[in-house]
Backbone:
């Protein structure tokens, strides 16, 4: 018998995963993670059918990841050999979203905010994610000539107070492009407060020289904030009432 007043605590219960379906659907969309969410046959669990290239698309890799991430779930393959992760509780959904999807959401948000700011500033650019930890920013369209590459970098640098960044450089020679990349690297390093990297791609008869900035996600957020503030200051200085880009820069520090 259990002594009076010392009854064992009842087992902990968690809300079923089905209650978190909308949360999971939203997180998948924000993370650009290709998957489908279906209710389990028991009406409580959720089946996450994965279409993205994740977990090496194998049950073994997914099972290992679930254990290491502390997610209460199981992995199987469906008849079409798609990976299916079954989540029994809302807590499991939250843990999967936090561990798997939030880093992707943060990366995509940072890239989208920076792209919006550059577009509003009239700067041609290409931005691509390097996993969930970094972005690559190219400050020119593919069809721009070398002179236009200098103009694009100069317009970008002007927002950070360095409009003469290409002075004295001959940009139809790769040495001049490398020197411009070095100056840009130092400028952006100062703007974001930590060392950034640049890469140059030599041009040819069918493609111009290119300079790409490689930034961590935190550096991209810092740069967006700096450019946002610089754009606002520039518009105030010339007395225009044109709206400054609205981005999600409020969280950058």
Residues:
């Amino acid at each position: 018998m259990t002594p009076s007043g010392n009854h064992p605590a009842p087992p902990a219960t968690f809300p079923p995963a089905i209650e978190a379906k909308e949360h999971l659907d939203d997180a998948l969309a924000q993370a650009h993670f290709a998957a489908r969410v279906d209710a389990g046959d028991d009406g409580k669990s959720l089946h996450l059918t994965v279409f993205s290239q994740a977990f090496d698309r194998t049950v073994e890799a997914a099972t290992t990841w679930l254990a290491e991430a502390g997610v209460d779930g199981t992995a199987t393959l469906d008849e079409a050999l798609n990976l299916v992760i079954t989540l029994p509780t809302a807590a499991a959904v939250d843990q999967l979203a936090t561990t798997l999807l939030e880093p992707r959401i943060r990366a995509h948000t940072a890239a989208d905010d920076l792209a919006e700011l550059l577009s509003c500033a009239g700067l041609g650019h290409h931005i691509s994610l390097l996993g969930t930890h970094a972005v690559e920013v190219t400050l020119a369209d593919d069809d721009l000539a070398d002179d236009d590459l200098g103009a694009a970098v100069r317009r970008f640098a002007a927002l950070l107070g360095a409009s003469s960044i290409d002075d004295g450089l001959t940009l139809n020679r790769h040495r001049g492009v490398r020197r411009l990349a070095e100056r840009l690297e130092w400028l952006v390093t100062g703007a974001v407060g930590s060392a950034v990297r640049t890469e140059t791609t030599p041009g040819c008869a069918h493609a111009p020289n290119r300079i790409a900035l490689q930034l961590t996600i935190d550096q991209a957020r810092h740069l967006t904030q700096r450019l946002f503030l610089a754009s606002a200051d520039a518009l105030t200085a010339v007395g225009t009432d044109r709206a400054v880009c609205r981005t999600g820069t409020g969280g950058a520090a």
Notes: The helical segments are 21-30, 59-69, 90-120, 146-159, 174-192, 217-237. Strands lie at 35-39, 46-50, 74-77, 83-87, 126-130, 134-138, 197-201, 210-216. The chain has two domains: 17-103, 121-251.
